[in-house]
## 1
Amino acid sequence: MAREIAAGLNVAPAITTSGELRFGTCLLNPPSGYTLGDLELGKRFVSDLLAGETLRIEGSAPWLAQAQLPEDAQARLAVRVSHVERLPAANELLIYPRNVLVAVSAGVADLPNGVREALHQAAIALQSVACLLAADTDMASPALREAARELGVPLRFAKADVGMGELARNAIGQPVSILGDNFIAIAVAEQPLDPLHIGRPRGRLAVVGLGPGAAELMVPAVKAELARANDVLGYETYVRMAGPFRDDQVLHCTDNREEMQRARHAFELAAQGRSVVVVSSGDPGVFAMAAAVLEALHESTDVAWHSVDLEILPGVSASLATAAQAGAPLGHDFCVLSLSDNLKPWSIIEKRLDLAAQADLALAFYNPISRSRPWQLGQALDIVARHREPQTPVVLGRDIGRPGQTLRVTTLGQLSVDQVDMRTMVIIGSSTTRVIPCLDGRTWVYTPRSYGDKLAPI
Ligand code: SAH
């Protein structure tokens, strides 16, 4: 009826879902493990059926057994379920079972075309390929990844000290027939293959920054990474901050000081093919896990570790989150320092403080004080005071972006060590940093972008 009306109006009819209503199934949406050949031809096919034609089913289509299709062995229209390569025709609905696996060696030149050619010679459709499989010794190969991306199929790896044919046979848990050679082998199984159950993927390790705490300040790439993680590692507070997690995700909470151990554990998990996330607060590259993870990689000779898909994803660091709340105290050149002398001698910290203060850089202090480091902050402030006026603005941000956050604006002369704890970020202005008192009682702190006619007091 739609077609008659359309013909009368000289337009194309769009007929939706009526096939599903009539036949109890959507022919154009086969179950997982199968893929439709051509959607446009398929639409035409279904509208012919709706117009009263019959069809025959060739090949195995178990999901159609329950459908109310107008079947007839003599029908002009055919649903054909097969991995055989075939030119599309208007009277055929081609559905490809994904029952083919192609085992490839990374050494093959122009892999995508090599695979296409091998399939064509075997008269097998590319649409039936469930995945590419390679030896795990080839895991680091970019050519393999590029080929899988270009062919639009997943890439899996398995242990192999044998040719590609055996690699494929060993990885598939059902009878297969093997075609091809030692470089490209095609395995055809009787049933569709689930790539998730063949070998394993290349492991992934992402070191991510959660930002200061508030969910809105976490970058979307980090959210996506957390969603795909099998394992999440980190200091317990940060792992909790990164949640909630699903039941299938494994959390490995450790003490804050066991960084190298955590980094190595992360590589061990990723080298097994898992998707692993190591979390840091703020940015992972600022006094946090990214450097520890790279250090672990650097000291390892394990090929499996070096084959891991490693990525560092940034976050909003505490100094930037605090600065934004205060205004723009880091609006000109600034220097970021950790006052912790756990991993560097105090003499180096003193020297850096002295030179940075002398150079009139605004200063942001991470790890300003702790129970085991009670005196360092006082000394640091004494050094800064040699080069800065007592009225230099100071910003103290505590638990910024977290529940109960506080922001205090004071001056270097009024700052006392007991106003600061290990959850505080200390920002000390430069000689040009200014304060704007506002009508609502708050203040903005900023460091102008230029020196204007003020000369640096160096
Ligand atoms: N990678 C983190 C820093 C880790 S060092 C980042 O980029 O932010 C830990 C120090 O950062 C703390 O001692 C504190 O000085 C500071 N810090 C971390 N989170 C903070 C927050 N939400 N508010 C204020 N300071 C914070």
Note: The first helix runs from residue 2 to 9.
## 2
Amino acid sequence: MSMPTVFILDFGAQYSQLIARRTREANVYCEIVPHDTPWTELAAREPAAVILTGGPESVLVAEAPAVDTAMYDSDVPILGICYGMQLIARDLGAELVQLDHREYGPALLTIEQAAAPLFARVENRPRVWMSHGDSVLKLPQGFELLASTERCGVAAMGNREKRIYGTQFHPEVAHTQCGAAILGNFLHGIARIGADWKMESFVDSSIREIRSQVGSAKVICALSGGVDSAVAATLVSRAVGEQLTCIFVDNGLLRKGEAELVVEAFRDVLHLDVRAVDARERFLKRLDGVIDPEEKRICIGHEFIAIFEEEAAKIADVKFLVQGTLYPDVIESKTPQSKVGHKIKSHHNVGGLPETMHLQLIEPLRSLFKDEVREVGRVLGLPDHVVQRQPFPGPGLAVRVLGAVSEDRLATLREADAIVRQEIENAHLDPKPWQYFAVLTPLLSVGVMGDGRTYANLVAVRAITSSDGMTADWARLPHELLERISARIVNEVPNVNRVAYDVTSKPPSTVEWE
Ligand code: XMP
């Protein structure tokens, strides 16, 4: 029997993938489809339920994105969220108004029907998240008012018999209290879908899809050592085995022992066909005399593409390129804000690869969030040190050696960084900082060692707490730990006589120094 499927009809909401994620967290399989998918197409796949997302438009305008109204005549349970609810209301003959002031942010929800299955086990007056400009004024026929807020008369509505529900607020966002329970009530209670879907099922279906997409063609993948490319490559390798060749470019900018670890993990543990390219000298040469961090990033990005293209050209009949694009990467590149936002740093990853290569993309992770990718990695049996890897900038240590990059300076940083990592890991902190590393500053300062004067490098240590790297605070590391880190660095790393700990948050600083 096939897995019960929930179709999420997408009206272009920022939160569509979040709804999908919450549905997966409720252990229910879902697919996001365009809002105007013909109902006959969906009905043929026997949907277990349908969720209509929010969207940026107003249902009151003539060209408002719509659904195939045949959906309402089926007996499939429907949940409309925000725009989705307004659309249901409009299609079923209710009255709507445009608000004078759009309503954004938190509101307290008064549950009008405590016995409504949508609110089972939800305490009255949860804080919910609103974001709308239109409101339902009068309910459609057959619907009852389920909840309201001070500023929104119809904050939730439902037709119990037809199992059609709507919420004006967003149950999928973390700021809505009991949002997961409300969505769970719809999926499990109202639509009666069992909690049977697991990440294993995602893995199985991705493997099937990749197989049918690729056929007998050849596939290449650039491994960076990061979680995303590792998981994407492993997934594709499970699907097409030896048709996949991975290319690992050792740019000499990785941390101590990392290049060996990557190759070993992928070749020996995961049995991937990995071509390791020793490009350490090429990168060093290219970086010679480059001081500006942005220029470093650009040089490294270009060099990487050049090498990758050279290597790919050595493999015959390549048709596909695997990329570990995640959902946040997808959304960042399409949100309108990103067009007007200031560029802080050009993030270079194995992603963003040459369009001139005319390869078709396989992006098996593009609907997932980082922690879900880690979960897929675990299901695939990737070792912990790969799955739990800290974020690491694409240009690697080149941006953590401030100023000129040379093999000597990289070696100094590698040693200091290895001590920072080792000591923080051995301290078994709870919670563990989100990211921690050393930075080699371009400063020299005076010190005294033995009886002699030194004039040597200053190493900075950065350890942060964060949930996504977008904002961060400096980690309050125990003084004894800082003492051990500092003592070991000045004793064990040649040419370093001073260690500083970074106590700035982001903003105003960034995580990396550069
Ligand atoms: P910043 O320095 O911008 O860093 O506050 C935020 C997070 O992003 C990581 N970072 C990168 N990650 N490619 C990446 O995948 C990059 O080029 C890159 N640059 C910075 C940084 O380590 C931190 O976790």
Note: Residues 344-345, 347-349, 391, 393-395, 435, 469, 506, 510-512 surround xanthosine-5'-monophosphate (CB under 6 Å).
## 3
Amino acid sequence: MTQPMRNPEIRCKHLFINNEWVNSASGKTFPIINPATGKKIADVQEGDKTDVDRAVTAARKAVEPGSVWRNMDASDRGRLLNRFADLIERDRLYLASLETFDSGRPFNDTYNTDLSMVIKCFRYYAGWTDKISGRTIPMDGEYLCYTRPEPVGVCGQILHWNFPLLMMTLKLAPALTCGNAVIIKPAEQTPLTALYTASLVKEAGFPAGVVNVIPGYGPTAGAGLSEHCDIDKIAFTGSSKVGQIISQAAARTNLKKTTLELSGRTPNVVFPDADMDRAVETCRNGLFLNMGQYSCTASRTYVHEDIYDTFVRKLVEKAKTWTVGDPFDSRTMCGPQVDQEQFDKVMSLIDSGIQSGAKVECGGRRQGSTGFYIQPTVFSGVTEDMRVGRDEIYGPVIQVIKFRTMDDVIERTNRASRGLAAGISTKSLDNVMTYSSHVRAGTIWVNSLNVFGAQTPIGGYRTSSNGKELGEYGLEEYSELKTVIIRTPTSM
Ligand code: ADP
């Protein structure tokens, strides 16, 4: 078993602009806290609007017509992306350890799951660089018409803290594949892996200005990107509230394009014919993954009334085996919440569940006295009029809700305005077809939850998302389509 680096050296703490490490214009820094201990592990340079301006100038130069990046053969762009993936693979242990140190996500998961997916994604998109093509369209009249996809230009990418390096990859890989320049603002809680990866951008040989990283806070560095008139597109993952702010800023300034990945609150429905043990395990793993800090987590578990009591009993047994502790320990499945704010938010929602009459079947408390640990929690007797039955909890808290019929459960799951994903456990093909055709959600998992591939698009319906990430569809978000119409000589 691979042993983590428990105290990884923090090598990159500056802003990365135009392939150089620089101080922030203000000279300010901000602290990075280890969620497992609550102690500071580094001070990082704090970028703001002035630094965003500097990065935009560099990025614009990198994508302007005639630049090295713009003139590079598509296959050479692919070689650079593959080289970048090689370097990430070389430094996999360091990156996974750094991610665990910064975010509290268990090392087993950062090393085995996240880094595998990050490397696969860069390689997957590397293969696409020279396969992005337009079409010849047989239009009326004496014309030749063809389309050609072109880069959007300068893309701002505002990241969330839940899977820091993976979230960056979902945005950075397709953007580079299509030939854009990017300015990344990592979440203020977790900027370390994005910063280290920037050093690999330079080592891989990307031209200056193609990738820039500005750590800092949302209302300063983040708003600097969303309000900038020379940025062509913003991609964002985070809360719906901030998604709306970014959307408004984009519209108010230069109507830049936006791709938004927002809140989820995924329903997971268990029918009486499901393989019960598998459904219980899927439910537990699907929710407790990443301490519940994920919009796809199936926190609303709808269980048919005929199997409700048995399901809850079995789920509680399973939940108790979800080991909480030091994220560097190989036995740990549940590390700390990312910061004090998230910890307080989850604890207050647990409290509101108790106040509103839901039953805590297990967990419900803080674990230990240092760090931001919360016990894996199962609530039964939850209804949608309770706050825990409605709000996105973003913590290791499962709410088990009773349902009676297919129509009833479809109506209730669709009542929420979000529609990122949905799950169903059943052996019946009829159930699968009915549920998957009527539920308003971007992904439907059948007898599974949280399954992703570099090749498969994700992105929700309604208020959950705007645009898709991953797969071939993810490329569309980073291309402009140009139509060329040429008058042809009159035919004989
Ligand atoms: P959460 O509420 O889950 O902590 P947020 O939506 O607040 O997540 O944060 C996600 C990302 O959005 C972070 O990188 C954060 O700095 C950024 N952000 C927060 N506020 C703004 C804002 N007003 N403008 C642009 N970005 C912001």
Note: The domain at 267-453 is CATH 3.40.309.10 (Aldehyde Dehydrogenase; Chain A, domain 2).
## 4
Amino acid sequence: MLSEPAREHAADGDAPRYGVLGWPVGHSRSPAMMRAAGLARYQRLPVAPEAFEDTVRALHGAGFRGANVTIPHKQAALAVATSASDAAREIGAANTLTFGADGEIAAENTDAPGLLAALGDRPTRSALVLGAGGSARAAVWALGRAGAEVSIWNRTAERAAGLGARVVREPIAADVLVNCTSVGLDRSSSPFKDLLLTADELVQYTTVVDLVYRAGETVLIREAAKRGIDTIDGLEILVRQGALSFTLWTGLAAPLDSMRAAAREPETPLHAS
Ligand code: NAP
């Protein structure tokens, strides 16, 4: 069922356009989710790195009001922007661009507040972030801002230095574990060996968050849930960052339930109106 703003936009061929910039971007659940939220003209925008800057500069002229940004363009999105929020600047990456009439491109990072929104009022006195890529930077920044004592573990330890968290040589206990590595995308293999953890060691966390998302739950989420641990999966994280982008662009409260349902629905026909 379409939300209120969806009905407003769906009938209007001149409605603002939105999209998600990535390379590749075919796997993204954002079009289904954002269309369900009300952005009827939201589409995938597959753009190779070498074409990113020119494409972004042309989007406003093509009727776009905003775009989400995913791998590998989040740093380039910040670089092309004419203004940026403190969060985007301090994290060094943007996942949301807003286009103004005079060529302004405003950069925001909703990954960081999206993680905090997903965590809600769960205990976050301490957190362990796994990974040191783009999403780990946002997670460290967000959790640090929320007052957590943040530790970081990464396969390549040197990459974890300088991100604003205590670097650890192996996973340690904490209130929250946030997997910001890409480990777990492959459904056939267990993530534990690569993450230097065992499934039974997950009991040292009150909440387990896995940013990785795919059809069906990840092994990390499944094994944590089996042990009675509170879990937040990658689709919920996707919904929360998307909800914040939606509100930024429209000024409306995001219809979280419609977005969740669409994000979780396998193979939504994206071009049906
Ligand atoms: P990234 O910048 O490419 O970083 C990848 C990280 O994974 C690095 O820390 C890398 O470690 C680690 N890694 C890769 N293979 C590994 C292995 N076999 N063993 C141990 N560590 C390994 O990626 P990202 O942008 O941070 O994204 C990470 C994951 O989060 C992706 O799956 C992405 O789809 C997902 N994500 C989800 C959302 C959401 O809304 N749910 C948002 C953002 C990202 P090294 O430094 O040692 O290479």
Note: The first strand starts at residue 17 and ends at 22.
